[in-house]
């Protein structure tokens, strides 16, 4: 069903990216702050005991920046689509939009990470 497939594509990509960020946060806690023993996780929401929140605050934001600073979703999709195209010239028609000027480093100091 092409319609269902089209409608599911964007949410599935976002869920996969959120899951990757969640994995990075857990690994960040284990590697940089092993005293964080208890996390409460729901999709892209993170919680911990109050004494661990300052460290978690930093880990969530720094891993978010690491994940997206050099990542371009459109270029990634273009590359992946190219793997399956018989006519590689058609790939030239799939141009990724230009990157904006958002400074992701600002996320590290933001009160609210998910804008």
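^ Assign residues to that structure.
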């Amino acid at each position: 069903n092409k319609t269902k497939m089209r409608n599911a594509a964007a949410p599935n990509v976002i869920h996969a990216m959120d899951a990757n960020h969640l994995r990075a946060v857990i690994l960040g806690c284990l590697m940089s702050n092993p005293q964080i023993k208890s996390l409460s996780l729901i999709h892209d929401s993170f919680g911990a005991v109050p004494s661990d929140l300052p460290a978690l605050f930093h880990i969530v934001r720094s891993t978010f920046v690491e994940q997206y600073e050099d990542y371009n979703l459109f270029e990634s999709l273009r590359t992946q689509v190219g793997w399956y195209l018989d006519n590689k010239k058609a790939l030239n028609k799939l141009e990724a939009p230009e990157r904006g000027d958002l400074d992701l480093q600002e996320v590290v100091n933001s009160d609210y990470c998910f804008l």
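The chain has a mean pLDDT of 86.
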